[in-house]
């Protein structure tokens, strides 16, 4: 979703933000799309709960902290403009997405429409389900800018289309797909719409009603700056009965008679019994922390830094900035003539600068369409600075 035409977002107090991040003293962290540096309040939340578990017992700690654990659902609901009974907290974004996707039913000849930038794990799931059911997968053409063509999507709709699946922000670059416009098409055609918001959440304001998605998957560790291995699923209340969780356990359902179970009435039917209370609390704290700064303020600052980084990179000899799309986010990708992205990553790591390498295995269709195999991915966040960008560029050519 693009910045809203409202009052200007408050600016970020970068000095305060950095004071709250132990890692800023050690590294230039341009891998926020991999896993961001966790701020102290999140770190403390996780560690405090682990300490409580070790001092009174883990189940007992969960009981004591139940009100706080319940508030995690309110926090995520507030982040998404959703209701708390539409939220499930699971291990990661992939598992959240899977729990919804594998709960859909397809017949031979049904069609799944997706885009060139679809995330590999989602596409692999399509391929598996296509092999089992005969469903047909189609990547809708992109516009010249690189984003999904909403016009082509609209033209592709027919009664056999049973799912529209979109990766909002891909793993391999700054592209921001038009999630809202795709939602409008899905709503008009009454086709289920599943949105992979893994790379978007924390850097783009989200309102699920405005988007019109039935399902949204997100993760904690990236732009939300939460702990690893915790994510969440949103399922629109009215859509809940249209998907059956592919797995059920005694948390998702009650064994009410020898031959009968009853599923929970809310989205927690997609969760499982055993979960990590410390990271769940950490996720809730990360959401509150992000909301405290304001997602629009975060977006303004992080996207502004990415613009600066792209401009600076474009001036360096041999560097080609690779981001596509009419709207670009905080993820910056580039290649350097004659240099392998992995060796660039290692050289930067020696100077305590973190980036990652993104490759064809993460988003095959888009990478092949552009004739690319690997790129360096530098993803900035609101706590990064212009000075870090200067040092990064100097290290790249130095
Ligand atoms: C677009 C996209 N979707 C989903 C995922 C998977 O997220 P998780 O590792 O939390 O399952 C990623 C991870 O990088 C991603 O980039």
Your description of this structure?
The chain is an alpha/beta fold and 398 residues long. The two termini are 38 Å apart. The chain contains 14 helices and 15 strands. The site of pyridoxal-5'-phosphate has 12 residues, from helix 5. The site of pyridoxal-5'-phosphate (PLP) has 12 residues, from helix 5.
Brief account:
It contains 14 helices and 15 strands. It has helices at residues 14-19, 40-56, 58-64, 66-80, 93-101, 120-133, 150-156, 179-189, 208-211, 277-293, 295-314, 341-350, 364-369, 386-397, and strands at 28-29, 87-90, 111-115, 136-140, 161-167, 193-196, 215-219, 231-235, 253-257, 260-263, 319-321, 331-336, 353-354, 356-359, 374-379. The strands form four sheets. The chain has a seven-stranded mixed beta sheet, sandwiched between helices. Strands 11-12-15-14 form a four-stranded antiparallel beta sheet.
Spatial order of the strands forming the largest sheet: 2-8-7-6-5-3-4
SS elements, strand count: 15
* Bound ligand species: pyridoxal-5'-phosphate
Q: What's the shape? A: globular
Structural class of the secondary structure composition? Answer: alpha/beta
Q: Return residue spans where pLDDT drops below 50 for at least 5 consecutive residues.
A: 1-5
Distance between the termini: 38 Å
What is the subunit arrangement here? single chain
Major β-sheet profile: 7 strands, mixed
| Portion in strands | 15-25%
Task: Estimate the mean pLDDT confidence.
Answer: 97
Estimate percent helicity.
25-40%
Encode the helix/strand succession as letters. Answer: HEHHHEHEHEHEHEHEEEEHHEEHEEHEH
Measured on Cα atoms, how large is the radius of gyration?
Answer: 21 Å
